[in-house]
Design a protein that fits this description.
alpha+beta, 4-stranded antiparallel beta sheet, 2 helices, 4 strands
Amino acid sequence: MSNFNIRKINDRISFETSFRNEPGGFVHSATLFIDNERMTRQHCHWGNRTWEAYPFQAVMKKCFKTLIERTKDAAKIAEYTQMLNLLGD
């Protein structure tokens, strides 16, 4: 079973999120879009339940962290870090 949703953070940032059941747990997936451009897609596997403040928080943060790790431009790193901070703790 899969479920797809669009989660709009602001005018520039949105995520396409989904979940699917798997043996031994379930998977949250998220695709990050900035200015309607696909930036990265990440997954988190959960065995039982999540300990997130809101659904898909961990995988959405993972998208930004991966993007930051792959970026060499200091200005972009600062911009992506500010965007990551919008997702909360």
